[in-house]
């Protein structure tokens, strides 16, 4: 090996590690063999003592079973087997023992068996606690199988309300919560002789409370044995806490795991981790050898999305199977994950952090670690819980890695850098230090424990305890004397005290079942609507929110969904959820929760729950009031602007409705609300909204239950505090592309101390409006001025390079003119010269400041631009070529950040003279701007009342008087394309499917032009160009227009390209004809887009036309097939008129045979849904293509002449039938319609149109 090339060193190291692992494994196996022999001898001695005539068959059967079990243990060779005797000895000699075992050592399944077989717990039960329900059940099943039995016999479990035990049971797996509940009736836990607290490193809140109760009973139970086991934990925490107990380690070295880190930028490592995880899983499956894959994600919703996305990307392949694994899965679905698959099929498991410990999935060789987990953090100062995605600890990351090295060497792909791993906290913070303590303290109070004197393993802050006690007292669960009757009632329920409070008061108001379902939904329902991965799924979800949406908020919307779902037969519920975009797992989990609570009420409180919902408005009012009473601390007041959101009064924080809220989809902002969930992502979002009445808030304040100033809260509503008027160039720079910089302005102004900032832009007026609850200081005004100055400096220093042609006029000479502000010639660059340099050999971590620091020594840096890609990093522009050349020479020997000259050429081959196209609108937008939007009914329902952002302002979409259209007023200068994009954005629409949306802007009619008008326009344009270039150096042609043409066009030819370009650039944005801006285009090429659908039916006709045009019109026409399957016609000519005529001829062919429906009411019926379906049928029968233009109210027919004639004949027959019937338009939405009409109709008619047609006997 020493003679092998140096490149093999890394491989040798890996081999050495694996050899050491194998040697350790051999030593371990030798110890396991010794353990087996001891057990064998014990069994033999037992047989020797038998009386051949008195031994019963059961004893023989049990012995044979024990032999079989022991042989299986030796074969499994789990690391803990080698330590069996050590464990039994330590436990027998010590009341408390701490045993550490690495992942996969077998501690969770084997420990209980060793204790049972040793006889240490003959006088009672052995209990092994788990922090999760799923682990308790799966471990019980695993151990029962290993001991050749069944669950419910020797091995049992308790998990929530699920229980499988019998008189034979000696080993019980249960959740720490269950065992804590047993302390209520038996504080000494007298049924148990051995308690194993497993997975103690997770430090769940119930684990910590349980340890405190166990410690308290140890002095009364000298016979009790306590074992604390963990994979990764500092044993000193527990040794000091119990003031005794030795530490025993079960090392059981796993095989080496190769860790592969990501080279992603630190700031972007934990962004888009879902897609990164799926892509990495796809990459591993395609390129790595056999072995199963485990992917760590943060939630069940993410897992569902990733499973579906992986299957979609791997469509057609049969060599894999995806499995979800999380705590919300029913037991039968959890079992499937652990079953072996046939050879050649790879198991791919997408899991939450429940797969870190407790449960081991055999066969995992590859782990993909996103480095994040969902965690609830409690802010005791503000008394709010914040659910967020947080970076995991090193111990969690190591646990995840260990899952890949169980049976052989493996790989762990960490989707973050090694530096990020080093920066992780050592271990996860105990749950008791990061969650609200309400339920825990209530449990302690029920146990009769003084919270202030309770011996916590690691005590939470006094602030957190006081906050929880204050909440419990406000709910009436605690008093100065201890737990109240209400508190005892609430403590029985598996809810946070707030939800328990809701159930309690529901029972006093004859609304018990409603309150139980509401409490269950509050606990589980925030992900009830499934957004979906496809457009149809997204529309289904949007329709469901309209169908079930309640104006009383999210919780009552969830209740409406649950009511409808519960009426569906069980075998059809899954399909119903799919059809309505509902998360079926959330519904089932809610149902299980309701069942568990009703069982508790029946068994613990002797209350039978009638499964019947209240239906009257008074009941809804009472439920809303109860939700308010339980959640007073989260009361919020509207800030007066949809983008400002709400002011959370108690915590003094600006919050926003989550996009998934039913109120968001209804565009409804009530004045007063409460929320049940706070989520911090890009902003502070609130979920679980309930609309409340102001009088309730006033009443709570007057009674001293709520300590807020309502008048002050109302003063927080935002108002206009500053108006910034700026020019068009600076305006574009300040607001950014599609107004993207407005959010940055809002954040910057908020950081200065301003409250609830909203910045709006009005592009037509060049105005930025700042709204806030605070006043605008001079410092902030100066900030605007500073930014404006910076933008002006950038504009003033900008340059452009223009190619100079050779004498032929067709080729670039390589010489470029550098034009600066006002078209002034700054310098002349030879073919091998440039004042720009590209930055090569850079790290992705290199910052702009580092580049500037290194390169400013060579000259004045005028511009520094970073590219999105990593190499080259970007470019730097100097004042002169000499400075750029110095940078190249000065860095050529460097290892990184090397400068290379960047030579630009913008030359495009031109023919004849240089020509520019001038065009302007002949039909200006009418008034302040009005737009009509036409779209399908489902989208239309979701748009009514929504706001779109146009020209820096919000414009509301309303129902128009034109029938199916929506109307939007005060659109300003916004054109059809901009409005359409805004509509698509709020629908979250796929732009590839945007043909369903049509927008029409109302314009002034075109004014008929006289010969004198045309001459005046031509004279005006010629005079303006004459200011920049001699009159005899250019010629201007004004093109004739049709009476209804939207635009007017002129072409201007220049003898000198440089002079022509300079003049055109100088006049760009400055020319106006009839108050309309003249656009100047410098291209001689025109392109026509041809949809593939039209090409398929008209290809032969197009070929004939193009052949004739090339022959008679002196044009070049090329046909290109685009990536999306569509086509493009590229038209070039040195004769402008030929180009225009050729384009017009092809354009006319692209319009097909037109049926204009605008002027005839009967023809307009072709544009209705029934008419469109008739046209679709005619299209298929006549072998033509029919395209419907809703905006222009036209029908276009394409195909050969014979087929077009046949189609038109069928259309006439259809119109004749319509003429004999009667049409009535009934609008189902609008201001004058009753509130909730659409909701009720959708509830009654699942397929609204078809069901109404059938019921009312209408004719299609």
What CATH architecture label of the largest domain applies?
Answer: Up-down Bundle
Number of strands: 52
* CATH class category label of the largest domain: Mainly Alpha
> Mean of the pLDDT scores?
83
Number of domains: 8
Ranges where pLDDT stays below 50 over 5 or more residues in a row are 1-8, 907-913
The biggest sheet amounts to: 9 strands, mixed
Shape label? globular
Give a topology summary.
Blueprint: H1 9-48, H2 57-76, H3 84-93, E1 96-101, H4 107-118, E2 125-130, H5 133-146, E3 155-159, E4 162-164, E5 171-175, H6 176-182, E6 192-197, H7 205-218, E7 225-230, H8 235-242, E8 247-250, E9 257-261, H9 273-287, E10 292-296, H10 300-313, E11 320-325, H11 331-337, E12 346-351, E13 364-369, E14 372-379, E15 384-391, H12 394-402, E16 410-414, H13 418-423, H14 438-446, H15 462-474, E17 478-479, E18 482-483, H16 485-491, H17 497-508, H18 512-524, H19 535-548, H20 554-566, H21 573-580, H22 584-604, H23 617-630, E19 635-638, E20 646-648, E21 653-657, H24 662-666, E22 672-674, E23 677-680, E24 684-687, E25 690-691, H25 694-702, H26 710-714, E26 719-725, H27 728-735, H28 741-751, E27 758-762, E28 767-772, H29 778-797, E29 800-805, E30 812-819, E31 825-829, E32 836-840, H30 848-855, E33 861-866, E34 874-878, H31 881-891, E35 898-901, E36 914-921, E37 930-934, H32 937-943, E38 947-950, E39 953-959, E40 966-969, H33 976-987, E41 998-1001, H34 1011-1026, E42 1034-1038, E43 1047-1054, H35 1057-1067, E44 1072-1073, E45 1076-1077, ...
Parallel strand pairs: 1-7, 1-8, 2-5, 2-6, 3-5, 6-7, 9-16, 10-12, 10-13, 11-12, 13-16, 15-23, 21-24
Antiparallel strand pairs: 3-4, 14-15, 17-18, 19-20, 19-22, 20-21, 22-25, 23-24, 26-28, 27-28, 29-30, 30-31, 32-34, 32-35, 33-34, 36-43, 36-46, 37-40, 37-41, 38-39, 39-40, 42-43, 44-45, 47-49, 48-49, 50-52, 51-52
Helix pairs in contact: 1-2, 3-4, 4-5, 6-7, 9-10, 16-17, 17-18, 17-23, 18-20, 18-22, 19-32, 27-29, 36-37, 39-40
């Amino acid at each position: 090996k020493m003679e092998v090339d140096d490149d093999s060193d890394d491989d040798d190291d890996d081999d050495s590690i694996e050899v050491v692992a194998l040697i350790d494994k051999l030593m371990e196996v030798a110890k396991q063999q010794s353990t087996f022999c001891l057990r064998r001898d014990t069994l033999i001695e037992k047989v020797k003592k038998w009386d051949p005539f008195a031994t019963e068959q059961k004893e023989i059967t049990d012995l044979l079973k024990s032999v079989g079990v022991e042989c299986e243990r030796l074969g499994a060779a789990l690391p803990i087997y080698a330590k069996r005797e050590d464990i039994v000895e330590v436990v027998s000699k010590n009341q408390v023992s701490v045993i550490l075992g690495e992942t996969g050592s077998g501690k969770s399944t084997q420990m209980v068996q060793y204790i049972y077989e040793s006889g240490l717990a003959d006088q009672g039960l052995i209990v092994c606690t788990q922090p999760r329900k799923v682990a308790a059940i799966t471990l019980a099943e695993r151990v029962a199988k290993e001991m050749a039995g069944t669950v419910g016999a020797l091995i049992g479990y308790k998990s929530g309300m699920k229980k499988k035990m019998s008189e034979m049971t000696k080993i019980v797996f249960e959740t720490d919560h269950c065992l804590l509940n047993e302390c209520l009736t038996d504080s000494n836990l007298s049924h148990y002789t051995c308690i194993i607290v497993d997975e103690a490193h997770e430090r769940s809140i119930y684990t910590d409370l349980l340890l405190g109760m166990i410690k308290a009973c140890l002095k009364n139970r000298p016979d009790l044995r306590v074992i604390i086991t963990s994979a990764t934990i500092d044993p000193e925490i527990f040794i000091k806490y119990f003031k005794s107990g030795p530490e025993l380690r079960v090392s059981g070295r796993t095989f080496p795991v190769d860790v592969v880190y990501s080279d992603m930028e630190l700031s972007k490592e934990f962004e888009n981790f879902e897609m990164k995880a799926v892509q990495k899983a796809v990459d591993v499956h395609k390129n790595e050898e056999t072995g199963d894959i485990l992917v760590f994600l943060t939630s069940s919703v993410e897992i569902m999305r990733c499973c579906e996305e992986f299957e979609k990307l791997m469509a057609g392949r049969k060599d894999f199977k995806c499995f979800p694994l999380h705590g919300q899965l029913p037991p039968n679905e959890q079992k499937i994950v652990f079953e072996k698959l046939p050879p050649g099929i790879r198991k791919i498991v997408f899991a939450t952090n429940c797969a870190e410990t407790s449960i081991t999935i055999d066969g995992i060789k590859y782990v993909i670690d996103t480095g994040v987990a969902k965690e609830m953090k409690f802010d005791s100062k503000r008394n709010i819980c914040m659910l967020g995605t947080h970076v995991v600890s090193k111990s969690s990351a190591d646990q995840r890695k260990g899952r890949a090295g169980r049976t052989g060497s493996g790989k762990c792909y960490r989707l973050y850098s090694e530096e990020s791993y080093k920066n992780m906290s050592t271990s996860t913070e105990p749950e008791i230090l990061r969650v609200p303590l309400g339920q825990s303290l209530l449990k302690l109070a029920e146990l009769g424990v003084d919270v202030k004197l309770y011996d916590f393993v690691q005590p939470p802050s006094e602030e957190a305890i006081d906050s929880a006690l204050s909440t419990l007292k406000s709910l009436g669960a605690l008093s100065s004397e201890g737990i109240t009757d209400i508190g005892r009632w609430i403590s029985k329920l598996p809810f946070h005290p707030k939800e328990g409070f809701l159930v309690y008061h529901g029972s006093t108001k004859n609304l018990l079942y409603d309150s139980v379902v509401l409490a269950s939904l509050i606990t589980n329902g925030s992900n009830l609507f499934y957004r979906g991965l496809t457009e149809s799924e997204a529309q289904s979800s949007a329709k469901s929110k309209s169908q079930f949406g309640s104006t009383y908020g999210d919780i009552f919307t969830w209740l409406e969904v649950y009511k409808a779902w519960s009426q569906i037969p069980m075998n059809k519920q899954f399909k119903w959820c799919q059809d309505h975009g509902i998360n079926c797992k959330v519904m089932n989990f809610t149902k299980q929760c309701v069942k568990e609570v009703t069982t508790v009420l029946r068994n613990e409180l002797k209350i039978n729950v009638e499964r019947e919902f209240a239906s009257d408005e008074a009941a809804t009012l009472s439920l809303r009031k109860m939700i308010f009473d339980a959640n007073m601390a989260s009361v919020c007041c509207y800030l007066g602007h949809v983008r400002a959101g709400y002011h959370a009064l108690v915590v003094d924080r600006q919050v926003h409705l989550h996009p998934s809220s039913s109120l968001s989809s209804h565009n409804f902002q009530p004045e007063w609300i409460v929320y049940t969930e706070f989520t911090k992502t890009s902003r502070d979002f609130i979920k679980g909204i309930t609309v409340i009445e102001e009088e309730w808030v006033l009443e709570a304040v007057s009674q001293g239950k709520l300590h807020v100033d309502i008048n002050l809260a109302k003063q927080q509503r935002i108002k206009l505090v500053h108006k910034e008027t700026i020019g068009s160039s600076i305006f574009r720079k300040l607001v950014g592309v599609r107004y993207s910089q407005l959010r940055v302005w809002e954040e910057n102004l908020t950081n200065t101390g301003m409250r609830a900032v909203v910045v709006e832009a009005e592009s037509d007026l060049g105005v930025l409006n700042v709204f806030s609850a605070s006043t605008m200081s001079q410092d902030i005004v100066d900030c605007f001025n500073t930014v404006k100055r910076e933008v002006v400096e950038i504009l003033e220093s900008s340059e452009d390079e223009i190619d100079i042609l050779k004498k032929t006029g067709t080729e670039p000479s390589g010489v470029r003119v550098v034009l600066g502000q006002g078209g002034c010639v700054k310098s002349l660059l030879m073919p091998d010269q440039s004042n720009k340099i590209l930055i090569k050999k850079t790290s992705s971590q290199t910052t702009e400041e580092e580049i500037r620091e290194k390169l400013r020594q060579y000259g004045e840096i005028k511009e520094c631009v970073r590219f999105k890609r990593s190499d080259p990093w970007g470019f730097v522009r100097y004042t002169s070529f000499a400075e750029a050349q110095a940078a190249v020479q000065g860095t050529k020997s460097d290892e990184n950040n090397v400068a290379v000259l960047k030579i630009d050429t913008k030359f495009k081959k031109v023919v004849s003279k240089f020509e520019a196209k001038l065009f302007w609108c002949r039909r200006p937008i009418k008034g302040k701007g009005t737009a009509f939007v036409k779209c399908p009914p489902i989208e239309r329902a979701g748009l009514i009342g929504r706001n779109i952002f146009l020209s820096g302002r919000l414009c509301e979409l309303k129902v128009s008087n034109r029938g199916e259209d929506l109307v939007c007023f005060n659109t300003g200068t916004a054109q059809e394309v901009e409005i359409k994009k805004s509509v698509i954005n709020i629908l979250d629409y796929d732009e590839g499917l945007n043909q369903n949306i049509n927008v029409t802007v109302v314009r002034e009619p075109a004014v008929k032009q006289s010969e004198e008008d045309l001459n005046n326009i031509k004279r005006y344009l010629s005079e303006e160009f004459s200011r920049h270039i001699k009159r005899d150096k250019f010629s201007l042609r004004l093109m004739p227009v049709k009476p209804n043409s939207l635009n007017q066009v002129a072409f201007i030819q220049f003898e000198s390209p440089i002079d022509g370009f300079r003049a055109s650039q100088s006049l760009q944005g400055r020319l106006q004809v009839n108050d309309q801006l003249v656009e100047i285009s410098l291209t001689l090429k025109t392109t026509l887009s041809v949809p593939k659908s039209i090409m398929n039916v008209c290809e032969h006709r197009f070929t004939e036309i193009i052949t004739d045009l090339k022959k008679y019109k002196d044009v070049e026409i090329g046909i290109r097939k685009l990536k999306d399957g569509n086509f493009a016609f590229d038209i070039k000519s040195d004769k402008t008129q030929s180009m225009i005529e050729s384009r017009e001829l092809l354009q006319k062919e692209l319009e097909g045979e037109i049926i204009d429906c605008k002027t005839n009411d009967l023809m307009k019926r072709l544009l209705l849904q029934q008419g469109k379906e008739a046209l679709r049928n005619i299209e298929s029968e006549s072998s033509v293509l029919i395209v419907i233009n809703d905006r222009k109210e036209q029908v276009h027919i394409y195909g050969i002449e014979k087929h077009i004639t046949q189609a038109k004949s069928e259309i006439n027959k259809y119109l004749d039938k319509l003429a004999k019937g009667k049409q009535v338009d009934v609008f189902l939405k609008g201001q004058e319609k009753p509130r909730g009409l659409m909701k009720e109709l959708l509830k009654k008619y699942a397929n609204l149109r078809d069901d109404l047609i059938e019921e009312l006997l209408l004719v299609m």
